[in-house]
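Need tokens for this chain, all 483 residues.
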Amino acid sequence: MDSNSFDLHRESGDVAADRSFQSHWWTSRLTGPLIAAAVVRFALLAVALARKGVGSLTTLDTISYLEPGRNLLLHGRFVIDGVPDLFRTPGYPLFLAITSLPGLPAAAVANVILSVFSVLLVWRLARAAFRDDRTALGAAWIFAFEPLTILLSVSLMSEPLFLVFVLLSLERVAEFLHQTRLPVLAAGGVWLAAATFVRPVTYYLPVLLAAGLFLVLLQKPGLRWKAPAVLLISTLPWLAAWQARNWIETGYRGFCSVTETNLYFWNAGSVLAHIEHKELGLVRLELGDPGSIKLNGQGYLTTAYLNAHPEQAGWSQGQRLAFMHSEAMRVIRAHPGIHFGECLAAFLVTIFDTDERSFNALVDPGAPRYVPRGLRDLNLLHQAITFARAYPWAAIEKAVFVIVMLALYLLAVWGVFCGRLEKPCLWLLLGTSTYFFAVAGAAGGTWTDGRYRLPAMPQICILASAGLLRNKTLGDNKVRALN
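Here are the structure tokens for all 483 residues:
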């Protein structure tokens, strides 16, 4: 189906055939990628538990999910350290609280199951976008072995659950672009709201998708307003309800305070560190960030913060967060060039960081998780040579990650130009992946890493499948035309 057939397909009256195509949720050919995905992920989980125990499953952020989730499950209040939690949203904390009742390994198993389920959802999304079974199956195989997805499947973090909801939402939106049935789009909006309750990075995505739908449906007067309205109505009320909770309980009017804390301690802190020629850690301490002492994201309630801002001793959570936001924006507006450089650095880190450090700890436990301080003054080539001599296995593993990542990118670019994807679905895949990269870039370059590109990897794998299988697909099409 070429890029001009989107409207012709819908106007031809062959809607019943299209619905028959989209109704399948399973094919026996999916058995292979699903089994492969399960074997790889469960094997990694088993190795991690055998070599490092339960500690290999947790990160510094895990407790910030677990404590408020258990308080919500057991006491009906989303609180941490006795105060309403504004830093986390309740989606993954509640999921983690429930799945970890038998123990943290059980929660890790639940995460792995979600990651395997994502392989099926990638197949669904690719099939909805391309209307081609071969490309969809290829995308499932690629995603089954995508390194970043495998690594994040065994950590007690929100990424696997978030990805499931994102894929469910995008698949419904892609299906709507073929069927133009509003209930299908409404389901996509509900799944998108669910994703936002897991990770607020999708907070602005409903508005951008609604704008995209308006542009795509300009020639459809009956839908160009209805479709964006249905998407927003099925998404925004849920988010507004949580913001109302935040405002009623704390005076904070936002959806999630991660915006304010990152703006103040990281973005503005990075700008100030650049201007004052100081280490970022020192600047953050001067701003009142307690660092590792307070891992739940609400460091503005600690003694360290009040020592830096004694005038705020009687302020509410909402007042302190409002101050942090306004002060951070004042610093950023005064030095937009420096901030843009930080955002560009974050954008590049998100795209090219392999984020294989947790895997390094299993392959070569003696290898450092980050570049040793003594190597940072060397140029990139000398860094690589010195590191490879000191830690050969970790260097080989990192090289494999880089090669796979770059191959996926190149194939995805090839798939964009040669994959014969319908334009509305192409913009859906490209637009959402660009959105996730851009949001990570806006966070600033000093704290982001490769895991923030995870929501874009399904789209990249789908486009890579189109690029990889293009010649075979076109050859089959030519044979059909001759016959």
